[in-house]
Amino acid sequence: MKAAVLHWALRGLPVAPLSAIVPGTALILAPHADDESLGCGGLIAACCAAGRPPLVVILSDGVGSHPHSPSWPAPRLRAQRQHEALRAVSCLGLAAERLLFLDLPDTAVPHAGPVFERSVRQLAHLCSDHGCGIVLAPWRGDPHCDHEAAWKMAVALQARCGVGLLAYPVWGWLLAAEAEVEHEWPVGMRLDIAPYHMAKARAVSMHESQYGNLITDDPTGFSLPVALLAALVTDFEVFIRP
User: Fold this and answer.
1) Is the pTM of this model over 0.85?
2) What domain range is 192 assigned to?
3) Does 131 score more than 90 pLDDT?
4) Which InterPro entries does the record cross-reference, listed alphabetically (predicted)?
């Protein structure tokens, strides 16, 4: 399947009510601080408005975005990215105690092994303690190693706890139109987030270190692509069934 066809199919998924997508309390896995707002910001806001705030877990420490900045060494950048995430979820109505950080190494979130297993155990305890019935994680076709790792953790968590599982695409929206995508026809739902569009836009803007203006002394530093923002800060969000 061409990526252009995949994108067309995702945009044509049926719109479903929040209760059909997240019937209870959701656990949202975000590989990095900003993925929670980009991929699920509208859903987070909708869940909070419905009195069912999700639990959001950011897996990585986020320090890989500007590895060569002399003025933003890893401890300072880690603290900045956590601060940004707290401000972002506040825009969506989520209380600070519903946001947790695992501080796994950015660009090296494990796909298997002892740290992977320990992380899945931590997530399983969180599911149990908070009564989470469904886990949301990045789509397995997202072309980023940490997103792939987050998906694998979600699959392992489903096997361990029997929770539901949905995927949200982030970097998958930027796959080149003619690229071949080795995935089946997507099945899932869209959530209408028009009432929360502005809240999501504000949340995304809170991640100021990822826009290229705050940290200016690393020529290799990451900056959110305009095309990605255009694809994700819209009036709907997509959730794919595995």
Assistant:
1) yes
2) 3-240
3) yes
4) GlcNAc_PI_deacetylase-related, LmbE-like_dom_sf
